[in-house]
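Here is the promised in-class demo. Please do not try to memorize the tokens; focus on the logic of going from shape to residues.
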């Protein structure tokens, strides 16, 4: 279900991402995977950063990227990454931050298969 052009759940985002074929041209070869910096935040996560007034420093971005690499190395698919007092849900396969949370006092995170506190 789409609400205002966005997806209302991680499952819907995951389904959309898995249905998109990363092929280029008629050759059928896979397109090059973008680096983490190029596709760092989904539209949903970008809106969350803006509305919650979250401004990541370069050092925090590097730690987030490092945590995503660690999650990939451990075989995680959907990971919770904690950077200081910020929480991010990362789709590891697609190098995409799905959402960002800056109030984690009573937060509940579902549909993750691992967590990295960095």
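The designed amino acids, position by position:
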């Amino acid at each position: 279900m789409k609400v205002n052009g966005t997806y209302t759940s991680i499952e819907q985002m995951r389904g959309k991402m898995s249905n998109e074929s990363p092929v280029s041209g008629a050759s059928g070869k896979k397109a090059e995977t973008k680096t983490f910096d190029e596709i760092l935040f989904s539209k949903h996560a970008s809106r969350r950063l803006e509305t919650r007034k979250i401004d990541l420093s370069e050092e925090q971005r590097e730690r987030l990227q490092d945590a995503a690499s660690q999650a990939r190395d451990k075989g995680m698919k959907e990971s919770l990454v904690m950077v200081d007092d910020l929480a991010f849900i990362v789709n590891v396969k697609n190098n995409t931050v799905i959402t960002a949370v800056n109030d984690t006092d009573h937060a509940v995170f579902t549909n993750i298969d691992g967590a990295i506190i960095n």
